[in-house]
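The pair is quoted verbatim below.
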Amino acid sequence: MIYKYRTVEVGLKILKNQSIRFSSPSEFPDTMDVAPLLIDFQFRLNDKIGDEQKKDLEILFEKWPALKIRSINNERLISDAYQDMLLKKNKILKICSFSTNGNSNQLWKNYGDSEKGIVLGFEPDLQKKFLIESPEFFFGGLVEYVDEYPTIKYQESPKEEIYSSWVRTKLKKEFDWEEEYRIGFFKNDLSLLNERNIEVKFDPTSLLEIRFGKLISNGDKHQILFLLEKKGWSHIKLIG
């Protein structure tokens, strides 16, 4: 199961609207987390180019026809074009963070209103239960904690491997206590460029349990129980 720690106020919004907030990497506290700088775009046209990179080249040349001619003696132009493409993807990319630990003192303190909030427990394959139309790339998985961020060579790696490494790598010394599980997606929708946060609907059957903080007030707990009864979500296990 994967868990979302929240204040009662935010938790009620999630339950009422049946949606969870996804954010752009620019909202993350670590500026190097999902940073385009981690991808090496040094491109050599004479080197072996994978099928996925060939498709990207076709897209670039179709978008900027002059690039094909101008880049013959200036491969840096292709590197710059790739980087521009990825910067846009970075802004369009939306991520939602969970934890695999449903009862962590530090997570309660940082995200669960110091045990006055709640924890929402979802099924592990939650990414399959989000109602997103036509995502270009959709993923869910555990974060890999590292001592330092690796540099990913774009020309040498399959695209899915690049995205997976880029999105799921995080510094161990600062963040491994979160035991994070991430869900995110790319979508070919330029309107998302200017949206730092978006609300995404989920199938309510994927919400399996709610844990109440030890210090939650009776009034707040009653609000949540009343809402669950009103929605008819009797399948949810209540803890605390």
Q: What stands out?
A: The helical segments are 8-17, 51-63, 65-70, 76-92, 105-111, 159-168, 172-175, 218-231. The first helix runs from residue 8 to 17.
